[in-house]
Amino acid sequence: MTIESEKFEKFGQEWWNPTGKLFSLHRINPLRFDYFSSRSGDLSNKTVLDIGCGGGLLSEKFAGAGARVTGIDLSPVAIEAAKRHAVESGLSIDYKVSSPERLVKDAPAPFDIIVCAEVLEHVDDLKGFLRDSLSMLKPGGLFFFGTINKTMKARLFAIFVAEDLLNMVPKGTHDYNRFVRPSILKQILEENGVEIEELKGMTYDPLKLEFKVSNDTTVNYLGYARKRG
Q1: Residue 205: which pLDDT band, with cuts at 50, 70 and 90?
Q2: Would 111 disulfide with which of 32, 49, 80, 126, CB 3.0-4.6 Å?
Q3: Was domain 3-227 assigned CATH 3.40.50.150?
Q4: Helix 57-64, helix 23-38: angle, nearest 10
Q5: Alpha carbon distance, N-terminus to C-terminus of the chain
Q6: 100 three-state secondary structure
Q7: Secondary structure percentages of the chain, helix, strand, coil, to 5
Q8: Which of 109, 134, 117, 121 is nearest to 188 (CA)?
Q9: How far apart are CA 229 and CA 227, in angstroms?
Q10: What is the DSSP letter of 19?
Q11: 183: exposed, middle or buried (Cβ count in 10 Å: 0-12, 13-18, 19+)
């Protein structure tokens, strides 16, 4: 387990408390799933790997839409919470305490879709992480991502405002030095035979107290890429 993953080890059942410490994840979860699923086509029986699945918020959305989902995370506490909630929800999801580096050694069948949402800004070795992750994607398969841009605006809003002022996420969740510029992500994806097809922003409206997909990628952004066939 890494220092970053240890931050999430203490949340336990907080993962499924919509008004708890992770309430902001519950706010963005429907938005990001709607975006991802609208680019996926029919999800029935498609194989999905949710990397850094946490308590399973996105995994359950994909499973509920008919996909066959594998969720991995380095936190045993998060995986236990995910397994428990999946049973309560009547969903069959293959959860594992693992990393892409470990999973790829098991030589799983390639996945139709790989999801990596709110994870890239927490990994130690971004190039190695993405290399291992993308090696498990089918030719023509889709890679969905969501992360934080490395800008001064992101430093202000994702850390100072979101953590220190509004308590939207627990203090210490984010480290500016780990934020990922879209240009860097694009370069690493292309090195692995994967090309970005769309890049959108995910912005917070303080008046409506909600997030929306936008064209402003200066703080949070999400999108999808396709592996060359």
Answers
A1: confident
A2: 49
A3: yes
A4: 40
A5: 34
A6: helix
A7: 40, 25, 35
A8: 134
A9: 6
A10: T
A11: exposed
Dihedral of alpha carbons 175, 95, 27, 182, sign: positive
Report DSSP letters for 144-194, one per residue. Answer: EEEEE--SHHHIIIIIIIIIIIS-SS-TT---GGG---HHHHHHHHHHTTE
What are the tokens at 208?
């409506």
Of 109, 108, 120, nearest to 144 by C-alpha is 120
Q: What is the mean pLDDT of the chain?
A: 92
Q: What residues does each domain of the chain span?
A: 3-227
Burial string for 161-172 (b: 16+ CB within 10 Å, else e) reads ebbeeeebbbee
pLDDT of 206 strictly over 80: no
Which residues, including other chains, have CB under 8 Å from residue 9's CB and lie 6 or more apart?
1, 75, 76, 77, 78
Handedness of CA 156, 161, 164, 165 (dihedral sign): positive
Instruction: Give the separation between CA 149 and CA 168, rounded to whole angstroms.
Output: 18
